[in-house]
Amino acid sequence: MDSRHITAIIRFLWTPLILSFIVLTIVLIVWASGDSVVARTITDGLIRTVLVIGLYIFIGNSGVLAFGHIAFMLIGGYAVAWLTMSPFKKSFALDLPAILADNQFPLFPSAIAAGLLPAIVAFIVGIPIMRLSGIAASIATFAVLAIFYTIYSNWDSWTFGASTLVGIPLYVNMWVALGWTVFAIFTAYLYQQTKYGLALRSSREDEVAARAAGINIPVQRLIAFVLSAFFMGIAGVLQAHFLGSLIVNGFWLGITFLSLAMLIVGGQRSLTGAVVGVIVVSTIVELLRQVEAGIQFGNFEFSLPGGFQELGLAVLMIVILIYRPWGIMGGHEVPWPFGHGKRILAGGFALAPPLPKDERK
Amino acid sequence: MTASAPIVITENASSDKLEVFDVSVDFEGLRAIDDVTLSINNREVFGLIGPNGAGKTTLVNVLTGFQKPTTGRVLLGGRDVTGWTPHKLGRNGLSRTFQAVRLFRDLPVVENLEIAAIGTGLGRREASKRSIEILKWMDFEHKAFDQADTLPYGEERRVGIGRALAMAPRFVLLDEPAAGLSDAECDDLMSIISKIPSNFGCGVLLIEHNMRVIMGVCERIHVIDSGKTIAQGSPSEIQNNPDVIRAYLGSKTE
Amino acid sequence: MLQLIVQIAVDAISLGSLLALTALGIGLIFGIMRLINFAHGDFIMLGAYALIVPSAADAAMMFIGVWPAPILVISVIAILIVVALASERIAFRPLRTADPSILLITSFALSFFFQNLVLMVYSGRPKGVPLWPDLVKPIYLGPIRVPELHIITVCVTLALLVLLVLFLKKTTIGVQMRAASEDFRMAQLLGVRGNRVIAAAFAISGLLAAVVSLLFVSQTGTLSFKMGVPLVLFAFVATVVGGMGSLVGAVLGGFVVGVSSIVFQAILPMEMRMNDDAWVFALVLLILLVRPGGLVSVKALQERV
């Protein structure tokens, strides 16, 4: 493999490499500072990143604004609780079938299984729903969330109803969350470079032309829907193992709006936008929270009244959207900074750089 | 590879035919297409003309699966494909362009073509290869990585044709490709269209208002007016047909 | 038995009316500018909070709420029209040409803003507000007991619908609004002034929100900063079920969702009744799968090839 080839591969993977590098840098700085409170904030942010990338895989590539993805997070979170809580703790709150009630399964396989369950659910509900477009599709996915939310709220024997389910093993720290975040970044990027990702993006641009070009839109949407449900499920798993508790009410409108807002503020049409959205919105929230708690200016302590944080976030979001209607990234990925050399297509088929105008023909 | 070198992407049977039998389409009681029958042969450029609102685009929509005919049948290579979905017809060798072009605006030119190649079942590697070949054939590879919505109008149309060809079609349906083009661009377009049958081994259905383009490249021409067939024949026959002159040419030529 | 059936029917129609009015407020604006205004629910909430003195105290002190009914109604309407117009001017006008998803998220942000503003000023605890307590008294139609308030709700809804239809058919601005919702660009080319039409639509949505606000508060007697959310959620679903962009559809959808929600609650066996919202949404899903364009589908939204 010569150096030109390696350059081409680095260029192809530039976006996920840089994004991973950014999150890794943030984690390393916090780790070096040894501040455990900030580490928790960062872990939370990384889980949000997995969540928003999950959303992006479907919304960003299909252009269908789905409202119901939090259902998959809900399903994943509870599934992992069923699998990994100790039988003793389960016996307090839940009334599960013997195989789940009497066993405690290993963490990693359980996480995968808890990611696959929402993927399977997405496959089943996706078959009819993926035929819909536009706002009808948005509402249909929301209906799915509403149905699961209502059922889980009232399904006492499996979910402890509307109460908080506690006693889920705590093992997610900054490094576990980082691992999943990097995996999500690379998976989402590689998916969008496959023929399936490209086919789906064509339907985002123009459904009619995509159909004429031989693209089976419902099938392409379904692929992205299932993949995105897996990562939503994993986000649920990570959150469950991070907080150690679950409450159905935490998987409803609040998190739906917040995650969509992060995606759209960052720019829904690029993976970079998804990641940047999480970073920017989380940073704004964190800064406002600190101002609200009070900051020192020399001898003065300056603080803002409670509730200011939320108002500030809302105002800043509107301002960002007014100035950057397609989000901060406006649909762009991380740009390649080293000039225009040989471009390599995702299919590995190289194309020489364009000739200067007078040499053509 | 220079622009004039032939690239045969598909080797279709020379007996391949795209046929329409007794097709009618009703829109809320209005008859848009009235009992039209026509047949396009492999490797010919077949013209479909008619005044505005004659039903030309509706007929293309029937052929490509965007419109179900009220009655009648569509046959592709002898196989009944009436009522097939657009993407299934696309996979089976029927591709089209649109009057409104409809490029995938946010994607680069080369990906516009790649998507069509992928639509016929290719992987990304082969799709890239085919797309680059076609762009070279059209003398357009220097803009391969330009985003589609940055192109001027005439070039958009050219990419639209490239995209249709990237499906390696058995038949390609061009819906008013010359609309809004300058005379020079029309000449380029005519040379591209006339080379399509031999270089791609397919038949072409050309819908056009521009008589110079139609008469310049078509071997046979079919004329419809108010959804009905009024004439069919060679360019010279059509030019001398009194019905056509009355319905169409008469009102168009000063 | 008869009493029960009438009771269910009246409840269903009354809830349906509130949802229809809310859906109309959302549908009107969607038709013209493709904005799904989630903050509409918070307009309703703000109207309700305007009745009491701004304070974080637990017990609510009536403010506008004790004024004579006509002045009270006009005040709440005026406040919400101002709120709606200000929202349009500040948040939505700069984004008018943006993608519908961006507009939607903007309305989320606005909704979040209003809710947290109220949370800050009034505190988060629900507050009891006895607005027009006399109206809850039942009236008797022969042997059948019907709450007066429900009758008023239905009558007010019908009156507003008639007025709105007259407005859209007979006034210049109304006709312009209909033209704009058919094809905004074309209407502008024909001399319709976009800003005026959109402002008018927001003013009407503010008026509708004010009416819903008063009816809703007099039915429930409580205030909460999240009270608008379920209303706007069901109304939003109603507009989609009815057919996005169609005003008739919005009204129809409002009644379908309202009635089915009450009916599911009444007829489901006890153990399934807890999940009544799940049944409503299952019905919504079914309607959408059978008729993706909603019950009354609109031509302007279908894509031409």
Output mean pLDDT of chain C. Answer: 86
Which residues of chain A sit in consecutive blocks of at least 5 with pLDDT less than 50? 346-361
Succession of helices and strands of chain C: HHHHEEEHHHHEHHHH
The ordered string of helix (H) and strand (E) elements of chain A is: HHHHHHHHHEHHHHEHHEEHEE
Name a few traits of the molecule:
heterotrimer, A: 361 residues, mainly alpha, two-stranded antiparallel ribbon, 16 helices, 69% helix, globular, C: 305 residues, two-stranded antiparallel sheet
Question: How does this model look, in words?
Answer:
The complex is a heterotrimer of chains A (361), B (254) and C (305). Chain A contains 16 helices and 6 strands. Chain A is mostly helical. Chain A has a domain at 3-250. In chain A, α4 crosses α13. The longest helix of chain A is centred in the N-terminal third of the chain and has 27 residues, at 36-62. Chain A is globular. With 254 residues, chain B is of the alpha/beta class. Chain B has one domain (17-252): P-loop containing nucleotide triphosphate hydrolases (Rossmann fold, 3-Layer(aba) Sandwich), CATH 3.40.50. In chain B, β4 (71-76) and β5 (79-80) form a beta hairpin. Chain B starts with 16 loop residues before the first strand and ends with a helix. In chain B, 48% of the residues are buried. The model of chain B has no long low-confidence stretch (mean pLDDT 89). Chain C is mainly alpha-helical and 305 residues long. Chain C has one domain. Chain C has a two-stranded antiparallel sheet. In chain C, strands 2-3 form a two-stranded antiparallel sheet. The model of chain C has no long low-confidence stretch (mean pLDDT 86). Classes of the chains: A mainly alpha (361), B alpha/beta (254), C mainly alpha (305). The interface between A and C is large, with 43 and 46 residues.
